[in-house]
Amino acid sequence: MKNYIGPRSPITITAPSALTGGTPIIVGTLLCIPAKTEASGDQAAVHIDGCWEIAKATGEAWTLFAKVYWDDTAKKMTTTATSNTLRGVAAKAAASGDTTGWVLLSGDSV
C-alpha cells in the first residue's frame, strides 16, 4: 500500500522528561516504553505496543490474558481497574508474589 507508514512501534518523540530505558512512562495518553535512557528534550524512540516484562503489583495473581491496568501512582501494572487505565493483557500467568509480569501492550490511547 502506498499509504502504509510502518509498524506502530517504535515511534520517535521529544522526551517530555528524563526517560529511563525500559521504564514505562505516560506520554500524552499512551503508556510508552523508552528504548534507552534519554534526557528531557532529546529525541527518543519509544514503544507503545508489544510484549514487555513490567513491574506489577504484588499480592495479586494474574491469569493468562487477564486485563491489566497502569497504576501511574505506584508505577506498576495491576488487575485493579478503579482509577487505573487499561493498557493491555497479561501475556502469561504470574504468581501473587511476583514483582514483574509479562504484559502485551495494546498501544491504545485512553
Number of helices in the DSSP assignment = 0
Whole-number count of domains:
2
Lateral arrangement of strands in the main beta sheet: 5-9-8-6-7
> What shape does the CA trace take?
globular
Largest sheet: 5 strands, antiparallel
Q: How big is the Rg?
A: 14 Å
Structural class: mainly beta
Q: Strand tally, please?
A: 9
State the end-to-end distance. Answer: 28 Å
Q: Can you characterise this structure?
A:
This protein has 110 residues and is mainly beta. The protein folds into 2 domains: 11-48, no CATH class; 51-105, no CATH class. The protein has no helices and 9 strands. It has strands at 11-14, 25-27, 30-34, 43-47, 50-55, 67-71, 76-78, 85-90, 100-105. The protein has a 5-stranded antiparallel sheet, with no helix packed on it. Strand 2 (25-27) and strand 3 (30-34) form a beta hairpin. The radius of gyration is 14 Å and the shape is globular. It starts with 10 loop residues before the first strand and ends in a 5-residue tail after the last strand.
Please summarize what this structure is.
The chain has strands at residues 11-14, 25-27, 30-34, 43-47, 50-55, 67-71, 76-78, 85-90, 100-105. It is an all-beta fold and 110 residues long. The protein has a five-stranded antiparallel sheet with strand order 5-9-8-6-7, with no helix packed on it.
